[in-house]
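[recover] target loaded
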């Protein structure tokens, strides 16, 4: 209703306008009844301390992914923070822009195979005033990237192709951002050889995982001097694999 009236939710609750319900509201209700995600209908989604514009063709940010930002804050606590940030599979800029907002002295690179997703990321960077510090690149993970980064963030597709998802997910969100082979491990196999050459000494790579994938992903990503530990989400489920250099 707030979206249909072009006001924010606080005003709708505290000072609701008078008048008829706009026709647009009922059209939005029908879209929701058909299973379309609310984020696509409203065109926006809050993540950490920023709000992102989203739409069909991009993965909708999930609260579970905020654990990657939380563990990065813990890792760099007491320091000036990361100077160079890499977000592989950035989508609408979710992890990259949240991190740049937290560390004003950092610059970042967001990579995605989808030009449509990067168009949302570019628009979000401009709207949030982060465009001067955010570079966006079409690419297949880290292929062609040679520099090192203090913080690497990645939410790859990790859903097995046979998995059942909630209503409206597979029907509306991009499959290439969700599914990764029958085991859900294809993206991690692509990332494994790339992460050691990208991560700066003393840095952190935080990679999102499915709740039952920690052992399998660790066996793929623990290589060439990198060790890992698991971080849980707010539901106490394994949600991220944290990679650092063995001292």
């Amino acid at each position: 209703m707030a979206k249909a009236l072009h006001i924010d939710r606080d005003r709708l609750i505290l000072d609701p306008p008078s008048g008829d319900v706009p026709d647009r509201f009922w059209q939005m209700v029908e879209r929701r009844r058909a299973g379309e995600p609310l984020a696509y209908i409203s065109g926006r989604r809050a993540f950490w301390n920023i709000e992102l514009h989203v739409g069909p063709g991009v993965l909708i940010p999930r609260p579970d992914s905020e654990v990657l930002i939380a563990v990065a804050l813990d890792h760099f606590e007491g320091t000036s923070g990361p100077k160079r940030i890499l977000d592989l599979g950035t989508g609408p800029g979710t992890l990259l822009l949240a991190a740049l907002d937290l560390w004003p002295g950092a610059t970042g690179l967001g990579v995605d195979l989808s030009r449509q997703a990067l168009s949302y990321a570019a628009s979000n960077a401009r709207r949030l005033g982060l465009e001067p510090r955010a570079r966006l690149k079409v690419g297949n993970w880290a292929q062609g990237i040679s520099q090192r980064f203090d913080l690497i963030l990645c939410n790859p597709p990790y859903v097995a192709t046979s998995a059942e998802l909630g209503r409206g997910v597979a029907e509306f969100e991009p499959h290439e951002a969700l599914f990764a082979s029958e085991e859900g491990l294809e993206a991690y196999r692509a990332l494994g050889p790339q992460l050691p050459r990208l991560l700066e000494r003393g840095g952190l790579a935080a990679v999102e995982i499915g709740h039952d994938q920690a052992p399998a992903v660790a066996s793929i990503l623990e290589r060439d001097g990198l060790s890992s530990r698991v971080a849980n989400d707010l539901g106490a489920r394994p949600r991220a694999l944290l990679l650092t250099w063995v001292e």
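[recover] notes: The CA atoms of residues 70 and 192 lie 23 Å apart.
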